[in-house]
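Q: I'm writing up a methods section and want to include an example of the input and output format. Could you take the sequence below and give the corresponding predicted structure tokens, formatted cleanly so I can copy it straight into the document?
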Amino acid sequence: MSYLEQFMQQWKAYLKQQFSQCGLSYIETDSGDSVDLKANSLVYFRWLRMASRAGNNFDESRDGIAWVMLEKQLKALAEKAEKGTFDLVSKLHLEESQIQIVLNFNYDDEQHIVYVS
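A: Here is the clean output for your methods example:
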């Protein structure tokens, strides 16, 4: 599984956890995980926007921007992980399976985006 896929799965797990705390239901369809993940993310971003200060400053188009920004962050981190893993494996003689990367997701209600670290 690529790092991007792993990171998307971490986002999915985070999203499901947040949904249960917010009283929302994560919906899975036959369209595939990537479509479901985006659709559920947009629902979550809408909920966050309405429940926070962001609801006063942004309209629903900002939810799409929040998704694009999250996706870009995950792709950039996946590229860094690929390079970093290669360096660790070659320098420290580790196996790739020994390396685990866990992401943290933090919502910024002023900008209405999720930061990934």
